[in-house]
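User: Predict Autophagy-related protein 18c's structure from this.
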Amino acid sequence: MLKNERFTKSRDLIIKKLGILPPARLDTCESGVSGPFSQIEPGFNDNDETELLFVSWNQDYGCFAAGTSRGFRIYNCDPFKETFRRDLKNGGFGIVEMLFRSNILALVGGKANSQYPPNKVIIWDDHQSRCIGEFSFRSEVRAVKLRRDRIVVVLEHKIYVYNFMDLKLLHQIETLANPRGLCCLSQNLNTSVLACPGLRRGQVRIEHFGLNMTKLINAHDSQIACLNLTMDGLLLATASTKGTLIRIFNTMDGTRLQEVRRGVEKADIFSIALSPNVQWLAVSSDKGTVHLFSLRVRVVGEDSATCSSAVQSPAMVSHNSSSSLDALISPSTSANPGSSLSFMKGVLPKYFSSEWSFAQFHLPEYTEFIAAFGSQNTVIIVGMDGSFYRCSFDPVNGGEMLQQEYVRFLKTDNRPK
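Assistant:
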């Protein structure tokens, strides 16, 4: 893979520190015969027997990882290409998480993996072709999230947060039943924020680790189905199992800043993406449409032409928005079309005055797709049917997005029956 991001020097430290940490057992993997790729078969070809088990973006959406029944693969998005793959005989991986573009990966075996069951997390250094750490749990791992200084392991009822440098257990968080493994992290080095389900239905727990502060947000009446943070962790977007509304919150004080409507029928929300410039929000669902919304949240000192630097800036109004919420909302700049009947909102159902999507892109229904933002007003989409799309949107007029690229990166029979 690409250049190791400071972990080569820390490998020996990591291995020296490995030991017994309840409730996870940490072991080292010797390089060579006992590594997860000791039985690599480099010559596998795509065929109907290769099943796509998992896809996920890296932290800056420049790459995505695919876990298959035979190993894993890494793809670059722009230009689209497979950068490398690891194939093996003894089963694949149900979770593959990248750390930006470094050689560090977190791997969880698929259910058919005879060597690494789904209750183990492997921290894999592909530069050295060896495992530098292994976490074993009593129950199945639902998700793993990475940032440069943290490893987060999500089980159905608990989340464990580890320090990346020495694998020390830092935090344990109890959650409501979380079979989807919902959890997200900020990625800016100067903010350390985690969002996950709370202990009550519809509640989101926000951990501001740098501030030693916990915030509970009652986001929905129904259970949380999907959530995501901005890169600095100061804005949160959520959807419930009802799937009709997406809400945006200030994570510092829990204030609801905006609400947009995907539709009026119940839907299963697969992904929520927030653009790095904090101008756009994209939502994918089982209805076969990616909806794009205009955010009315703005960064201090930035306008729509220069907002692209927002991902670099830790300073957003939401730091003190409890006293200056008006500055967070652009009162009339939202491009989301409201209903022309909004003047009758006291009589008509609430959804007539909701903010509807600004642009849309249509996909096969029921297939799981996850969306992210590319460069220059584009949305990139990866599907569990082995497809990759790039589409562009008109930032002024909206409407139907235009397909710019389509790639079938894996021939698989994951389509719904």
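The mean pLDDT is 80.
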